[in-house]
């Protein structure tokens, strides 16, 4: 038998496709002999037949056509094209809209018909109703931001009259990533307030990190080694990266890539946030939780924030020198900053913390960093993550990389129904026997930057950080790792700006987590985004991923670790890119098919920027930053604006080639390195 066609029919209703094949499809010649899982395409007096197989996986339908015979089928190519064309017309990719939530109905009642499994298992979670309301709210807000062509409603206004003297130096809106940044700034002596719309310390996502990455927070002086050890919920021995390759060409298959020091530490996120909150309060900071941000008014001498307590509905007001937007993907400030379109890609992510997965199904000493168990599903390449947590807890995520289009903004509710449907396909388990601890979900945004200043992250007296700035890793798509890596330079630059009152947009806009070595890998994540306007071969994304991760597997473990942690330099990047193109000559054409000429030109600009930064680092990176620091005692007071600019350039020389550094520390005494300490867990 020879395979002639393999495609995905983007519908979960496989039986409907089989019925269509048996009763609706009109072959241009011959007949279809019905079979339980497809049919045999036969022509009288012809020995060769076409065997059509259909099966269901990942809540979608796949089809293969195999030639059964030694000779070609009559008009074989035309028949295959006709079948393919008719399938596309009968079963197009459908854009799903969440159902309305009528007044007087619970969220469970509103969603039960469309998303039965999602409702069933959220009902088994503590605070499941409130969490599902949050999922619905987040999806509606995300869709509104993507699908509304009108400019966003302004929430930041500007007036020319002075306000009362600010009572705070910094007000952070958003208490997840924001609290980490805020704790450092409070310990630097600034008056800090954190506003959080949820109960402080409650998150819809969990955080994993490595010892080396967390070391930057210890070197900075925010945590001690003992505190870090107390935050570890679980540390696993090894992490696996593997993509489905049963349908991929032989040269596009790869063994498991082992990454034992990537995301191998599960943090107790609630304890981590509360410890940051304690440090903030000890330094004189304040936290207002259950408080919803409404508007901000920029005055010449400060910014006034209007907020409202969500339980009492009492208005609240704060005056600060600078407002920090840490509201994440739902930030109305981020939308206003960039004219309504704050992002051009996103990673919809859903999952849960569960108990009850048998040890023989998954050993808690190991994690799945990136894994796929099937090909493209309804216009998405679904990818799993599994991280061991405290005790029997396992944190499981399902996500996909998504290129944003108005009709396909990305759905959390659809992805949750996928999650509960196909989790037993991924890891053998009975969902009814699991204990559902809490859900984890969110939209993780991305923005393709080809230069450090091509995207606004600030107004006068307003600065976006974390997911609100969407300047994170294009590979792992998370703002937490990006913030941790960039926290030393972000806080040092903001502290310098505050000390010299450099709080206007031209200065604040330079305080960003941009790294040209991560921006250039945008093409890698873009290659995982299935175009919604045209079909791809189902195996395409997995074949590309296996090609590249196969190359990583041939490199040293240290280089693979550095690449995934956004620390790879110019030479390793180019060497791996050339090896991938040599091993898979179709790779460049596949990428061109997926991204198109315009985005490829944008990427070339990003690559040029990366190359120039690498050249600048080679020429100046080893001697200029220390020289700039030696000039600080006299230059900073004499010319603060020049000093700030030099400090920005000094950090860029290191960070843009994946070499973060620490110039200032909160700690008075040195601490041992945690990547050299063995956790007792």
Give the overall shape, derived from the CA principal axes: globular
Uncertain runs are 668-681
Total beta strands:
25
N-end to C-end Cα span = 53 Å
* Proportion of residues in extended strands: 15-25%
Instruction: Look at the structure and give the mean pLDDT.
Output: 90
Ordered list of secondary-structure elements with their pairings:
Layout: E1 2-9, H1 14-23, E2 31-35, E3 38-42, E4 49-57, E5 60-68, H2 76-90, H3 107-111, H4 116-122, H5 128-147, E6 156-158, E7 168-173, H6 177-187, E8 192-195, E9 208-209, H7 211-220, H8 225-231, E10 232-235, E11 238-242, E12 257-258, E13 265-267, H9 269-282, E14 286-288, E15 291-299, E16 302-309, E17 315-325, H10 332-337, E18 345-355, E19 366-371, E20 383-388, E21 394-399, E22 402-403, H11 412-426, E23 435-446, E24 458-459, E25 462-464, H12 479-499, H13 505-508, H14 516-519, H15 522-526, H16 540-554, H17 557-564, H18 570-583, H19 587-620, H20 624-630, H21 632-638, H22 640-655
Helix pairs in contact: 4-11, 6-9, 6-12, 7-12, 12-22, 16-18, 20-22, 21-22
